[in-house]
Amino acid sequence: MPNTEVITHDVIIVGAGLAGSWAAMVAAREGVKDVAVLSKIHPLRSHSGAAQGGIAAALNNVRPVPDTGPRGPLEQIPPGDAPVDSWELHMFDTIKGSDWLGDQDAIELMVKDAIDIIYEYEHLGCVFSRTPDGRIAQRRFGGHSAPRANFAADWTGHVLLHTAYEQAIENDVKFYSEWYAMDLIVEDNICRGVVAIDILTGEIHTMRAKAVLFGTGGYGRAFKITSNAFANTGDGVAIAYDAGVPLMDMEFVQFHPTGLYNHGILMSEACRGEGGYLTNKDGDRFMEKYAPDKMELAPRDLVSRSEQTEINEGRGIGEDGQGIYLDMRHLGREKILERLPQVRELAIDFVGVDPIDAPVPIQPTAHYSMGGIPTDNNCRVMADAEGNLVTGFYAAGEVSCVSVHGANRLGTNSLLDASVFGRRAGYAIAEFVNNGAKLQPISGDPAERNRKRVQKLMDNPGTENVEDVAQELKTTMTDNCGIYRSEEGLKQALQDVKSLQKRFKNAKVMDKSSRFNTDLLAALEAEHLLDFSETIVVGALNRTESRGAHSRTDYPKRDDEDWLKHTVAHKGEDGAPVISYRDVNIDWEKYPPQERKY
Amino acid sequence: MSQNGNTRTVTVRIQRFNPDKDKKPYMQDFQVQMTPDTTVLDALHDIKTHQDGSVTYRKSCRHAICGSCAMHINGRNTLACNTPMRNEVDKKGRVTIGPLPYLPIFKDLVVDRSSFWEQYLRVKPWLAPPAHVPEKEFRVSPAEVKALNDAETCIMCGACYSSCQVIALNKKYIGPHALLKAFLRVLDPRDTIPGERLEDLAKSDGVYRCHTIFNCIDACPKNLNPTEAIETLRKLAQRRLKVEEQRQERQKHLDEPVS
Description:
The complex is a heterodimer. Chain A is an alpha/beta fold. Chain A contains 16 helices and 24 strands. In chain A, the strands form seven sheets. In chain A, strands 1, 2, 8, 9, 10, 11, 18 and 19 form an eight-stranded mixed β-sheet that branches. In chain A, strands 13-16-15-14 form a four-stranded antiparallel β-sheet. In chain A, helix 1 (18-29) runs parallel beside helix 4, helix 3 (104-123) packs across helix 11 (413-434) and helix 5 (235-242) crosses helix 15 (518-542). The mean pLDDT of chain A is 96. Chain B is α+β, with helices and mostly antiparallel strands. Chain B has helices at residues 40-50, 114-122, 142-152, 165-169, 176-187, 194-201, 215-219, 226-238, 240-251, and strands spanning 8-16, 26-34, 70-73, 76-79, 94-98, 105-107, 110-111. In chain B, strands 2-1-5-3-4 form a five-stranded mixed β-sheet, with helices on one face. The relative contact order of chain B is 0.12. Chains A and B meet through helix 3, helix 4, helix 10 and helix 15 of A and helix 1 and helix 3 of B.
């Protein structure tokens, strides 16, 4: 492959979802002249756009109709009436949802910024659903003690993404669409740029910048049944890890309770927020047993575990008994068409069931990555468990671990996290660049190194099918590192991951051309999955307790004495993760750990 | 994919073309196993991962929200991800897949959407908001939002654009996708420049180019109606000054309850 020019920008942002688009828009708006965004798919195809149900903020636009109980209808709050919600309440719900592993200083920033950023979205043109008097509409969501999910029907992420992208273009951000970042350049703890492939031509470029932000999304594709897009292969996590940056709390993976049976495609939590039931094969609303107060609107970790218990005890539905019913019939045709039109179409298209007429078969689906690249509250990436920083490197959104979600994220807090911390990153980067940050020299030729790596992969005659290796990984991750985990299963998973890493060395790339080679990209993505999955398994194996989404059958209790701490994983010299731990930021006066009941 | 005994073998005929080595596009047949659940995207994935890794197409969300996988399936434009194979297999046991028509081909089913995105940018897809911003949200009625819903769920997949007979002949035409986006902004009570937008849309490559052939409606995988939006824009363009005036009046009340 030919040598290529070195490309230079003030700021390079990798990933064009909400975090990346906000960071780019704000950095440009704050006076940084030369902001570029790379995305392996067109920006408007980013997975932020797939979010459905809402974005959390205590706006106090609606309340439960008085005297109708916790599941009664909602109404707009009449002018002058008392508020029902506050950022403090949102903060407590998020801390409790996180099973006390969330950093409370970061959570406070997020829930306070929440209110302001929803109004900013609205002022920038986002089309939200509305209350009768014209305020932004709100609905209930799991684990939230007030109706604070601000929404646009069931395509909330879509309208937020379009708004953020449009604003980034208007602020003259340059987009490299269908460019794939494959390496991060860090020397002496200073980030100097990235290496990326122009997918169309296959050319590999060194791209230098004063600041780099990763907003590359999550790693749900490491699991067999997932709601995540094909694109969510945790590239950013893997690239950073390879460059010596640590990963934090990787063992915390959220399984969403309602993925379409056999497909994993998301049926929004709004289905339950609007009043949908979960039933087992006997027709029982089994959540009565597990969360008598919150029922179907308990947090996702608890609901998914309850479903899995029903399934494991033989009360599942479907051919293989691995499903559960999501029953929305009682909501009525009108409400389903107005509030949940898109999920209705998904159910019809993929499982042939119209929720108006019949219960929808669903099952838990790998959905959200709580773990990721550790950052401080201004999105600056940490170099170690002590909190030292990598100069010039930022991360925001699902790829990052601030940590606002701790051991379990509440629904509607992900769009919020990506937006709030994307915006904070934009301000932080602008300050860094405007205060005179310089392009840093790069030793050697990173593009050439990566050209050789690609050439080696392409030239390898190989006998291993990339997809088969990836599928085997996903199977062991789901079976042995899924909703319920045990030492025995995790040891099996670790052995499998290591053996698959070896087998991948013999991987075969079938497409030998340079133009738009998605076969090569799939191989690089599979390599990334194999790389970071080891940190998920090792983190889970070490953590001998159950907390949030990490549930050990052999250690069923939370253990604050030993495990109220973040797992930090560095890549060791032999390639295996080296683990250290970091304290959780807790306000012991206001929000000390409590038993978590719903 | 579930295995419930209903597996059968069908032929997927794919248009192949790599401009670096092929003089012109050609068709290639692949055999795949399908069940009643298999989508066209599942079939393509099976071919790519286990038969020929050089078969190239775009994909991402696989549930009809990202807009990546629009292609030409059995003679019509649609998304591969939510199209079941069972509805597409013809009497000969075959499904035929090509790239979106009328666009340059990068490789196989991957087309160059540059003109599509240029037109999207041309209509200034962002809101031009009022200078005065309230402390909370602008007040917009549920009815006003409902009118916008018909445009805001567009996923920019290009199925309409590449089915449009006007686009086929003239890439200067703004096109159904961008006109739908323009409709969204023109009708938004918060937008301050509906008159300026309508003036641009009324130019020779704008709303009057549409021949109302309705291909865009047939092609849209989200069941949107760009033709109707274009007709509305034509009517509004004819009374542009009135629209401007009404908007200015509406914007005096943007921070007041609508009911």
